[in-house]
Amino acid sequence: MNPDACDPLAHTSMYQRAEEDSDDSDGHSGKAKRGHLCFDAAFETGNLGRVDLVGEFEYDLFLRPDTCNPRYRFWFNFTVDNVKQDQRVIFNIVNMNKSRNLFKDGMTPLVKSTSRPKWQRLPRCEVFYYKSPVHQNHYVLSFAFGFDKEDEVYQFALTFPYSYSKMQAYLNAVELKFPEAFERSTLGMSIQNRKLELITFDDVKKPDKMDPKNVIHMVVILARIHPGESPASYVVQGLIEFLAAANQPISKALREHVVFKIIPMLNPDGVFLGNNRCNVIGHDLNRSWNKLSQYTHPTLSAVMKMLKEYDNSSVDFVIDIHAHSSLTGTFIYGSTYDNVYRYERHLVFPKLFATKCEDFCQEHMMFNADDRKSGTARRYFVEALSDNVNTYTLEVSMCGYFLNGTNILTQYTEDGYMRIGRNLARTFLEYYRFTNILPIPPVDELRPRKGRPRTHRPRARSKTRSEVRVRPKTTRAYAPISYTDLSICYDSATSEDGSPVRYMYGQPGHAGYGGFRMRPLIHQDQFSLSNIQAARFSNLDFSSDFRLKMPKGKGGGGPAQEPKMPPIEMLNVPPKPHLTIIDFNQLTRGGLEEATSGKTIEREKEKIRRHTVKSSSRKA
């Protein structure tokens, strides 16, 4: 049997009309009339059993059960062609065996067409999941759809299909791109003679392998034991891509210290036939580990033989990857042990994995020793392998996950599933660093690089670089502002440059208070508050509490007594700064020089002098 199959959308239906046929077919030419839908599932991973036309635009669809096992009916994948433009129909899938599934929580079927090969989910408002009294109270999945293009072939599926041929094509492409990254071999053959592929990542140095004292650490990954759980294949693809990257430091460190054995498809026959859970003879392989047979379960027997070979010294993990049809998010199933230390060690990996995945759901994680699951890989390997092996079941939802703390459901895509595989590899890195198997890098390597990524070509730098002188290390100190001459007052006169004259007490020769001559001080304090209200200090009013009252003699006409020095705190008035006066009314084009010219400044000085004389006369 040739395992290769063409794209279902490129498949030509036997009922497809020829272009020269008209829409008025009389029914005797063997061609279907345009608008009479033609269903097809005769391709790899396809599944559809029967279609009944129950109304003018309504169809009842019956799923084909798994081969040799009528119990399982959930996976569907089929194409529709020979449609009319803008034709609207209703599809009812009436014989699903699982009443509890994610269609109640918002999952919808996928659709794509010939000209739009990317999978898209149907709008939730067009999908209904309910009990139908017409169909013996069975749950029915109904969805409405409108065909917008006439010459298109439309494909509908439960979730993203991943066929056996797609896996072979992907492994061939990766092998050509990274020929030295991994080793590809055939572990065994299925009942229908399809290959059981084994991918090995092993860059551990040979001297370390030859030394019996050195323990070789090994991780075994199993996937796709149930054919209908196709998201598991995307998780494995993301893991393989991450480990195969040659320039990735994480994958390089993992390959040099840990051996990875990946079996991407445990049930190739069931995948090819489009089954939901069983192989070609109707056995659920994830309930058959405890009753292996070389004839009915050849793939499981080959895996068990490999695990027994490496079990004594090197196997650390066995992880079985599945897709869950009734729960959201990503979570892990584990086992319970009587040995407390083994159980605590068993909890480390799920906790590390939860920190790496934003879609990890703690509520759905479970650890048990259920006897009903004794035939699963997770429970069987606990008894069959040594105590050093940690066995888990990694579950990913077929639908999506809820963001932390919200009710927003985010639907998974192909890349979303592959991201889980990459996060799985990062968790292995953290685990082996935590257990001191991998060296912890320096702090500088752990810090993220600042700046934007170098997505463009940098400019060429000159080879001759000027010497950069090292700036001398000096202590930073603020410039002190000294207020030693606090005994000051203001005279009504102004200095030659237009600013008020500042005098200091205690200078002889000035006819001021106490017969002391006041010496003008040119220095101004530019940091004082008077810079903001300089105009208010052009003439101080001493009629308030700051006014120096001169005591008079008896009779009012006697000579005045020599006044005492006023307290310093009474005269602590900030000086008026020196300002250059600019007439902004003259600031026209080219008028800045005219505004700052000497004539304008002299004119403003004269205004200030007149205003000062008027104020002095009013006070007198």
UniProtKB/TrEMBL annotation:
Q: What SMART domains does this protein's entry cite?
A: Zn_pept
Basic residues: bias regions: 449-463, 608-620
Q: Which PROSITE patterns match?
A: PEPTIDASE_M14
Q: Where is this region: Disordered?
A: 444-466, 592-620
Against Pfam families, the record matches this protein to: Pepdidase_M14_N, Peptidase_M14
Tell me one GO biological process term.
proteolysis
**Entry superkingdom:** Eukaryota
Q: List the cofactors.
A: Zn(2+)
Q: Which GO terms describe its molecular function?
A: metallocarboxypeptidase activity; zinc ion binding
The chain positions of domain Peptidase M14 read: 160-432
Q: Where is the active site?
A: 395 (proton donor/acceptor)
**Family indicated by similarity:** Belongs to the peptidase M14 family.
What's the protein called, per UniProt?
A: Peptidase M14 domain-containing protein
Natural source organism: Anopheles epiroticus
